[in-house]
Amino acid sequence: MDALVLDDGRAVELGERTSNGSKNETRFGVMGDVAVVVKIQLAHGDPSAEHRALEFLATSAVPVPRPLGAGTAPDGRPFLVISCESGVHTGTPDGWARFGRDLATLLDVPVAGCPFRRVSIAEFVSDHTERLLAVRPLLAEHLIREIEGAIAAVAESDRLVITHGDPGTGNYLDREDDNSPGILLDWETATVSPFGLDLGRAIFISLLDLRHTGISAQLAPALISGYTERAAFTVSDALLRAWTTIAGLQFIHGRHLHPLRADRTPQIAAQTLSAYLDGPLLG
Length: 283
Description:
Elements: E1 3-5, E2 11-17, E3 24-31, E4 34-41, H1 47-57, E5 67-72, E6 78-83, H2 93-104, E7 117-118, H3 121-135, H4 141-155, E8 160-163, E9 172-173, E10 183-184, E11 191-194, H5 197-208, H6 216-231, H7 237-257, H8 266-278
Parallel strand pairs: 7-11
Antiparallel strand pairs: 1-2, 2-3, 3-4, 4-6, 5-6, 8-11, 9-10
Helix pairs in contact: 2-6, 3-4, 3-7, 4-7, 5-6, 5-7, 7-8
């Protein structure tokens, strides 16, 4: 498949695969004389959800790619064409601080009129109680108690915000310039969810050190600093601990349910969570 035709009749020529994309077949492309990225649905992908998200966020201050069109491939798979943005997947403290600042711009977007699925506090708590039940046999008792406490803390919250759902520097292009916002990618899992989920997941991803920086202990504090600077408020240590623990549960459960790589197991996620809970505060 060398080219695709959009619903409006424009054609896009397909190039090499990008380094990102497990839910979709993601390719560089050219539409006219414009460089683009094309996301073609695979088994777990949903380009239409990302299309809706990008259209909603287009008029906000959140730095996202521009949606340029959509269509259906000859084999019936839907696809989305978005702008091709510059930037790098950062592994430096400065880059993670910029990532935190850009992620916090989501807090400025009103939830009223948002087309994303709304996850109530009660639904979130119920879902994560079930996740804990599913992975309980894999966990030490102290981890189970910590996760139960984190779920209880979320149950006491009352703020819902626009939530990316999978924030990490794999889904962020850093412009390597404090005066130039980066680009937040991959919006298929965006929801309106309890405040703290995005920050907790980003912290946990930094602790996993998936890009093998060797300086994960520096990345999380940089992320938190950038996030709270842009949000203009302080997040308590207790809240950070609760949401990072929730993120750990999500990774343990996700890797248990969908084992994809030998170096990304639920056991490694559990060990990372345990080390975080036993270690010094990050903020």
